[in-house]
Specification:
Radius of gyration: 34 Å
Number of helices: 19
Largest sheet: 9 strands, antiparallel
Strand content: 15-25%
Structural class: alpha+beta
Number of strands: 25
Length: 648
Amino acid sequence: MDILRASDGASNEWVRLTWADVMVGDVVRVMTREYFPADLLLLRASDPPGQCWVNTKPLDGESDTKMRLAPKLSASLLGDDCSPAALRTLLRGSVRVEEPNDKVNDFTGQLCIDGKERLLVSEDNMLLRGCQLRNTEWVVGLVLACGTESKINFKGGKGADKAKSGTTMVMVNQNIIGVVLCLLLVCAISSSLGIAWQGAYDAGEPWYLDPEAAVGGKEALGVSAGKWFQAWGTYFLLLYQFIPVSLYVSMNMIWTISRYFMQRDLEMYDGAQDEPCRVRSMGLIDELGQISHIFSDKTGTLTSNHMEFRRVVIDGMTYGVGDTAISRSVRENAGGGPVAPLALSTAKPPGWASLRPCSSTFVSFEEGKGAPSLFDALQEAGAAGAMRRELMVAMAVNHSVLLETVNSRLELSASSPDEQAFVAAAEHFGYEFSARDADANTVTLTDKRNGVTHVVKLLEVFPYESSRKRMSIIVELPPALLADVGGGCPYRLYCKGADSVLLDLLAPGSAGTDDASMEKLNDLLYEWADIALRTLVWGRRELTNYDDWHALYEMACQDPSEVRKHKTGQPSRIGELQAEAEAMLTLQGATAIEDKLQDGVPEVLADLRASGIKVWMLTGDKVGTAKNIATACNILPPDARVTELTDE
């Protein structure tokens, strides 16, 4: 880790220092696979200069890499070599930031560079301490917080200093306090009785018959008090072993030995990831034997979190067939016999319907024998073919995927595996995602049918949020691509989201919104959900008034008060303008992808249930999907009596 110190104005060289030397205001250069030593504002990356990828597993436990962006101003001011001299010029500015807090998914600040307009910075521009730099040669960042003020180490709030301890340790600590109090009481009683006995013995008369002779007045009282404390110390030295000090040593020895065997247990070794069991807190080892309930999410825990594109419906026509692993597992658990294999189409796909090695694992699309072919429909002339081609274009641009070279091999890097599946499907159906230029805000697509390259300009992105349940992107299509998808206004909004939200955004009276078509689509989505397919609905809109809308949106995004309200979920002008752009959509279609169960999940959960442990699964899927996955995982055994409490 290299540091360029802001206070050292005479030095224009990088200095190799340790984490303990990092101070607020320093500029830090972090190399690939290194961990960030503090909370940094990303100034520039190696290539592309305006973005990098980080692994945030120490913060949120998620193994997927996430993209971080540098403010356009800082990336443009720094040259290709990112020299210390250029950084010195940038350091003449300042950054206004919020008070330190532990909200790892939220940040608000302003970048103020002399002679330049102030820019808002958000969590997308931050590199937090403990995260790892991935798929990027190097990044340069400005230290905004370090030590206990960094988000991962923030100590604010009630009970923040309490260490994570197991139930056994808490119980032992409480009992030790009781033992100490008991010891003090025993010593006090013993010393009092000893002094009384000794006084009566010295006076020759019992103290209760002649107190004055026994005590000897006030002078003797002081002597007796001194003797009392001396006697108390004597009894304490005699009885202090009553406190089991060695118990802590014994417990830590047991935990250390248990940790040794756990980390070397071959049954707990993950061969696919080449990773053994890791014990990060020895004090919690004894908790394993006291577990009564397990609360788990579904995606990435019970399932493999590797998505495969399976089916799509466009203009009421369904393409793609085949059973899923979860539906087969449900049928086997229910005692159903094997189902006759479905006759698949023997027609050879066109030459352009191929996949690169980096995309091949994300598509498992099969067509039934005698069923309409999507490949043929994509080559049709007229509105029907244009509608199908435009959905593929939407899948090829509405995402945050990057093409990364890892160990001389091209890979699709994304924060969500769903996006990898959609990009791979678009490639399979003719539109290959070839490059992303973060500085120019463009995406390059290759039409594999004719070899033509299209550069699509990305104008605005409304990222996915759990409250919105959708993601939208506004693009400007080049003339050749615009003609390929039916013409019209080049400014297009493409939106993908849950059917519970997106179907309500469709323009009344638009294609596919009549009662019969909507009922058919809803039935199909529930049918897919019943076999544990993840569904999304896609819509589009031509923005003929884009320039007027964008002027208002840009003004709202530069207003700190509106940004703050938008981040906290309050009604804001930003949200209103996003909703305005996403209204009156035209239905493009719906897609279905499969997320298979991890190997061994049903067997492990069956063993847990047999041992008396209750397992709860949390998922945002439809009721039918949740029930089928629970049955496939052995959370719901075949003979279980199911009580369903459902409220839309």
